[in-house]
Design a protein that fits this description.
This protein is an alpha+beta fold. Helices cover 30% and strands 19% of the residues.
């Protein structure tokens, strides 16, 4: 699963070497997720906007630290829970100290997104959480301007509903919402009978 070369500007994309308008690239990816994400992050040149349910992957975090140290604009919004924020978790404060912005999503519903927009021109989205787990996941890469713009708009909406991590100091994050999936479910026999 190779990624395309670094992005072309919209002007470069309009006409290819044969004089025809080139088409945006879209690619479905079903394996080597870690390599794909790391490569895309390394290729970033200006901005990285990430909306991620759970982010605990040390390799991706180290790349973000390097990119923030080089002055890239990095914005990250993640679910506010103990899966992301715990004593053994990633040191998000280090990222903030390098100029990145880290927001937490504390709404009544789960931030279940898993996407990154790179340099306002490249999108990577799918089922893959940045946790380092090896699941049967998918990623979709696209540099189609309309699709990238839609995800940028969604990122802005999430960002406006998020809270700066700095403002949440001293607030204990709740247990991850996925734990609720494993709580016992009790039905009243009468209710169950009527449901069937």
């Amino acid at each position: 699963n190779s990624l395309p070369s670094p992005p072309q500007s919209n002007q470069q994309r309009k006409i290819n070497s044969s004089g025809h308008k080139s088409r945006p690239m879209q690619k479905a990816i079903f394996q080597n997720h870690q390599k794909v994400v790391a490569t895309l992050l390394y290729q970033s040149q200006q901005t990285i906007d990430i909306a991620m349910c759970w982010f605990t992957h040390p390799l991706f975090f180290s790349i973000l630290l390097k990119k923030a140290g080089k002055g890239l604009t990095i914005r990250l919004i993640v679910q506010f829970d103990q899966a992301n924020f715990n004593p053994k978790g990633l040191p998000f404060k280090e990222l903030i100290n390098l100029g990145a912005e880290v927001y937490a999503f504390r709404q009544n519903k789960l931030l279940h997104h898993k996407f990154v927009v790179i340099d306002d021109r490249r999108l990577l989205t799918g089922s893959y959480n940045w946790t380092g787990t090896d699941n049967a996941d998918n990623l979709l890469f696209s540099d189609a301007p309309d699709l990238v713009r839609a995800y940028q708009n969604e990122f802005q909406r999430l960002w406006q509903n998020g809270e700066s991590l700095k403002s949440l100091i001293g607030i204990k994050p709740p247990a991850p919402s996925f734990l609720k999936l494993f709580e016992p479910i009790a039905f009243d026999v009468l209710d169950l009978r009527h449901a069937i």
